[in-house]
Design brief:
The protein is of the alpha/beta class. The protein folds into two domains: about 5-105 and about 305-325, Rossmann fold (3-Layer(aba) Sandwich), CATH 3.40.50.720; about 105-295, Rossmann fold, CATH 3.40.50.720. Helix content is about 35%, strand content about 15%. The protein has eleven helices and twelve strands. It has helices at about 15-25, 60-70, 90-95, 105-120, 125-130, 160-170, 195-200, 220-225, 245-250, 285-290, 305-325, and strands at about 5-10, 30-35, 50-55, 75-80, 95-100, 150-155, 175, 190, 205, 230-235, 255-260, 295. The strands form two sheets. A seven-stranded parallel sheet has the order 8-7-6-9-10-11-12, sandwiched between helices. The chain has a five-stranded parallel sheet with strand order 2-1-3-4-5, with helices on both faces. Strand 10, helix 9 and strand 11 form a beta-alpha-beta unit. Helix 1 (about 15-25) crosses helix 11 (about 305-325) and helix 2 runs parallel beside helix 3 (about 90-95). The protein is globular and about 60 Å long. About 40% of the residues are buried.
Length: about 325
């Protein structure tokens, strides 16, 4: 059944128009795409729309939500799993429904996580640049066998469990920490331990926890001090899990042997845009880029055709359910 609803899509890119546009057209949604990030300055673009569709770096704080309500918007559809950028209490006060995409393609993020691990360990990024310059020397490219190493997975939802399964396949010992243990963990070869034991025993630590008040800066000076010397640290979850200044200190002291990031705690002013002709104003991020043992990608772990199709389908289903007076099960 076709759904008549006007939707303003913020932080739109060509791939959003391709995947979300196709799914919306099939459902009969009237979708308008805006390149602008949603914030207090751009919120007037939502005038005349029933819904807004927002992404991870859009501003959904109380002032923005209040303006959306005043403009007649009834529902905020997140095309992401995370919702730490949404003031849910303000949304409830205003009677705004907020829906998300709780799971789309956990394997996409898991596989990107493992790609970072492999690239950092075997220095693929450095080797690529050397060979292009006809430099075939091996000094500085030394790695280690993953088999027999210990991997600590923090957060064992669908993505964390997928990472654990892959790393178990490499022959790794896989440790896990989660406040709510996953009953499927044993099949992934994962052993649950407390967070202190995971930090102290793991050769590789990979983060897959949501960003909450409790997990904010869970990787800090104290936890880094408790880690193994030369530990590899990976974060493809939320940037705020890591205290960037503390990680930089850990890299300088060689406590952290390598760092792989697909997220950054101040990424909203950086990621998803071409800033190649500008001087970066974030000094901490610029400092990270100077380390030869740091590999950063711009929040692309989710970026596969399979994931974008799933995100579009769930987002549209969330909106169609709301328009029909039903719940999708993805309400916050």
């Amino acid at each position: 059944m076709l759904c008549v609803m006007k939707v303003a899509v913020f932080s739109s890119k060509p791939y959003d128009e391709r995947f979300l546009g196709a799914a919306a057209a099939e459902a009969g949604l009237d979708v308008e795409f805006f390149e602008a990030h949603l914030d207090v300055r751009s919120v007037p673009l939502a005038r005349g729309h029933d819904a807004v569709c927002a992404f991870v770096n859009d501003d959904l704080s109380a002032p923005v939500l209040e303006q959306l309500d005043e403009l007649g918007v009834k529902i905020v559809a997140l095309r992401s799993a995370g919702f730490n950028h949404v003031d849910l209490e303000a949304a409830r006060r205003r009677g705004l429904t907020v829906v998300r995409v709780p799971a789309y393609s956990p394997t996409s993020v898991a596989e990107h996580t493992v790609a970072l691990i492999l690239a950092l360990n075997r220095k693929i990024y450095r080797a690529y640049n050397r060979v292009r310059e006809a430099n075939f020397a091996l000094e500085g490219l030394l790695g280690f066998d993953l088999a027999s190493r210990t991997v600590g997975v923090v957060g064992t939802g669908r993505i964390g469990l997928a990472v654990a399964t892959i790393m178990h396949g490499f022959g790794c010992t896989v440790l896990g920490y989660d406040r709510f243990p996953n009953p499927e963990a044993a099949a992934a070869g994962l052993d649950y331990v407390n967070v202190d034991e995971l930090m102290s025993r793991s050769d590789i630590i990979t983060l897959h926890a949501p960003l909450t008040a409790e997990t904010h800066h869970m990787v800090n000076a104290d936890t880094i001090d408790a880690m193994k010397d030369g530990v590899m640290l990976i974060n493809t979850s939320r940037g705020g899990l890591i205290d960037t200044a503390a990680v930089i200190a850990g890299l300088k002291s060689a406590k952290i042997g390598s760092l792989g990031l697909d997220v950054y705690e101040e990424e909203e002013d950086l990621f998803f845009d071409d800033l190649s002709n500008q001087v970066l104003q974030d000094d901490l991020f610029s400092r990270l880029l100077t380390f030869p043992n740091v590999l950063i990608t711009g929040h692309q772990a989710f970026f596969t055709e399979d994931a974008l199709e799933a995100i579009a389908a769930t987002t549209v289903n969330n909106l169609v359910a709301y328009a029909a007076g039903e719940t999708s099960g993805n309400e916050l």
